[in-house]
Design goal:
Elements: H1 16-26, H2 30-46, H3 48-51, E1 54-60, E2 63-68, H4 71-79, H5 81-92, E3 99-102
Parallel strand pairs: 2-3
Antiparallel strand pairs: 1-2
Length: 103
């Protein structure tokens, strides 16, 4: 049975957050992870009232597609589109979403 020498190990322990970021970079999954995080955090960004009547579906070509079940909420979101984009940019950066589509 062969033992591993202590010299083959890394000397410093890497924090979990840093290791996770490295993993995402290595496999080029950063964008997908951010997209899924945005969809998961949608209720926190827009509030309970709007989130209960909307469903963010997916992001394609830097455009977030949101299904809206209420006409007045859809109109309100269209009028405050830039505010929602600003909230997303503040939380995730400008590279993730550049436009919103409501249907």
């Amino acid at each position: 049975m062969q033992r591993f020498s202590s010299s083959s190990r890394k000397k410093d322990a890497t924090p979990l957050e840093e290791a996770f970021k490295e993993l995402l970079q290595t496999y080029r999954l950063e964008d997908k992870f951010q997209e899924k995080a945005l969809i998961q955090m949608w209720p926190d960004l827009v509030g309970h009232t709007i989130a209960s009547r909307t469903n963010p579906l997916y992001i394609k070509d830097k455009k977030l597609f949101v299904k809206v079940s209420s006409g007045p909420i859809k109109k309100e979101l269209q009028m405050s589109k830039q505010k929602v984009l600003d909230l997303i940019e503040a939380k995730f950066g400008a590279d993730l979403v550049q436009d919103l589509a409501f249907f």
